[in-house]
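Good morning N.,

You mentioned wanting to compare the apo and holo forms, so I went ahead and generated the holo version with guanosine-5'-monophosphate. This is what I fed in:
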Amino acid sequence: MRREGIALVVSAPSGAGKTTLIKRLLAEFPHFGYSVSCTTRKPRAGEIDGKDYIFLSHEDFQRRRAENYFAEWAEVHGNFYGTPLQPVKTLLREGRDMLFDIDVQGAAQLKLTLEEATFAFILPPSMEELERRLRARDLDDEATIERRLANARREMRQARWYDALLVNDELDAAYDALRAVYLAATLSPKRNPRLLESLLGPGRAPEPAHEAENAWRN
Ligand code: ADP
Ligand code: 5GP
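and this is what came out, ligand included:
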């Protein structure tokens, strides 16, 4: 029986290790579809247009935004990012699990458009370690690092509503936690809407969810 696809949304302050963890998840579960975002940011060395991001001019991004092309969009670190809506909806409906790497503002919007999504937030073990990792990555100048650290504090203040908070201290342990969040999502009754009916047989629909609260009394 085919279930609906799982939308797994992963956010983190820049430098917390999100890219590293997501790469591992995609390597272990290659069936995942990855939601390729549009951005107005310039490509970094090694990034491929259409695979890592769809790189757009500012004008093109704003035009698509006006045409409601995006499921969500946000301005992050001075650049615009957005998730194309239609490809995501189609793939989820076809039963494809989808991974989203998006910031807190965008995730909050997706919570409204993709109600059944699972939201995971990756945290650094400390702010000092976050700064160390940003510097070790050697991608950003000093001003950008300062801005990323300020944004990290702001994003972490907005992370309470996520389904899971994962501390990326020891990489293997953080990865185990992330895959556990994904595997738990595959077991949710919301993702397996017809499982109980199929086991109980025709005409024996399971009780509505609110009946569960009273079930122990009977
Ligand atoms: P993000 O995508 O969140 O910005 P990255 O995955 O690029 O973060 O990781 C930032 C830096 O920290 C990289 O150099 C990465 O190799 C390193 N890193 C990631 N996870 C860990 C960890 N658990 N311990 C030590 N270093 C890590
Ligand atoms: P980077 O430029 O380092 O690849 O990404 C910067 C931030 O933008 C990250 O926090 C990343 O999660 C976020 N981001 C990437 N794509 C999207 C998107 O489509 N929507 C939103 N809201 N954020 C995104």
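The chain has one domain: 7-187.

Happy to go through it together on a call whenever suits you.

Best,
F.
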